[in-house]
Amino acid sequence: MTDETNDKDGKKDDALRGKKNARWREDFPVEWERDNYVTRREMVKFLALGSFTIAGANAVVAAIPHVVKASESPRTKVALASSIPVGGSKLFAYPTEEDPCILIRQPNGDLVAYSQVCTHLSCAVVHSEKENALFCPCHHGYFTAGEGRPYAGPPSRPLPRIKLEQQGNEIFAIGVEV
Amino acid sequence: MSSRQAQGTTLFTALLALVGIGVVVQLWLLTASVDALLRRETGTALHAALGSAIVFVINGLLVLYVFNFDRKIKQR
Lengths: 178, 76
Description:
The complex is a heterodimer. Chain A has helices at 2-17, 24-27, 32-36, 40-70; strands at 76-80, 89-93, 100-105, 111-115, 126-128, 133-136, 141-144, 150-152, 161-167, 170-177. Chain A is of the alpha+beta class. Chain B has helices at 3-38, 42-75. Chain B has one domain (3-75). Chain B is built from two helices and no strands. At the A-B interface, α4 of A face α1 and α2 of B.
């Protein structure tokens, strides 16, 4: 009974004060329009903060190659030098078992190794002895065997190169050049 | 609104536009440096980071200047 009386009184008050000064507005003083309103000052602060964030992100991107170089790579035996003839190739995994790589002996006798994952859409590249190139059969991308640089087809980035070290007849993978 | 306040409003609007342009330039530098990183060109990323830092300093100085201007008007 008392609640009903209070409700009625409240409605009467609202009616007396008019819609703009309704009683509930005292409890919820923020208006919808003001809630969405962004001042120039707030916008400038937001942009300055954004500027700081982007500058930080840029610094992180610039630091990535140095950090990656600094991190230690495992030293893994990948093949015997005598087992790869001129123009031949051998598959191995480095630095983990999930990272397929390819070792190639070039016509001049030099040994080079690359990640076998194509930089276009991650298909496995194969060695083409005839063209002395690495060929991606999925979209017909070609990489030079000497440097791993793309020269035909859709790939635009070179293959990550595997650093090699030869000790006697044994060949070791010692790092990845990103 | 006094002439000084009107001047302040114009200054804020101009600054907003300048800082906005600076942020767009920084975004461009960021995309360029990520692209360079993926192409293994470390030098480009370093220069982009330096450029971005300079733009940030300019933005920061502009914001500080206009907030100081605003404070002076309020003190009067």
